[in-house]
Amino acid sequence: MKLENTEKSFLFSQTALPDVFFVDFLSQLPGDYSKVYLYLVFLAKYKKDIKLNDLSKKLSLPLKTINEATTFLEENNLITKKEHGYIITDLQELTLHRLYSPNLKTDSNRVEEISKNKSRAKVIECINNKYFQGIMSPIWYSDIDLWFKKYNFEDQVMIALFDYCFNRSALHKNYVQAVAEAWGNSKIQTWNDLDIYYQKQDKLVKIKKDIAKKLGRHTSLTQYEEAYIEKWLFEYNYDMSCIEIALRRTTLKSAPTFEYLNNVISDWHDRNLKNPQEIESFLEQRKKQKQEEKKLHQQVSQASFEQRHYDDLSFLYANLQNGGTNG
After folding, report:
1. By Cβ atoms counted within 10 A, which residue in 190, 218, 222, 224 is the most buried?
2. Residue 88 domain boundaries
3. 325 falls within a domain
4. pTM of the entire predicted model
């Protein structure tokens, strides 16, 4: 007995996507890249062949964007490059592999441990309901458990991590991992640690704006300029009252740069000047020293001039004497 499926016409056919795509991958795809991926999935269903140039024309996207999109999709395991094209990754199989592959079995009882830890389970339930509408991918469970162990976050800090990323519309694994690592590097473990960190960041943002305004900058500061400011604040422990003294000195420069400011402020730090009073005292002392050096230089110049004048007169007198004798 031979059984056959009824072929549906193009009008009634469908291209299906697994739910795991919407849960784990959609938020990571820029708009144009999503467009490319969805069309590739559609073509793969019909086993169609298409050149990148034709794909560019079909989707009304620059060829550069098509190339960047395929590279991004490949790097994020959504497609796999073969000799003569690409294979669309089975996302359900990929997710299953991530969950149960041997390299994740360093703790074979991970899920059981989480369920036994009532506090941890409540945290995960809160994250699931608040940020994933109750349909959080199973992959997140392993990631959350890993971040708990790696960074030693308190429960409130873990929830704050997801809240931070959610409020920035960046609730995807790479971004959450980056923020978690940044917090870990900043020694954040408790809610108090996080509160202090937020205060420092708020202070940093305000001072960046103040500095840009005082310098007449109407564009955003560069990454390197912001790094200078962070060094002045957190490494040198200078506040705006100290930095402003350096900013006032830029009026002496026609085109002051952050490198110039950094040289000035670093010199103060090297001299162990810790507050505005010590800095102002040092600058006043150096001003007096320069004035004394200038005065001394003028005295030396005047003495040299008088000596030359005396020598010239002596030479003239000697010539007159010699002239008189010869006469």
Report:
1. 190
2. 19-94
3. no
4. 0.50
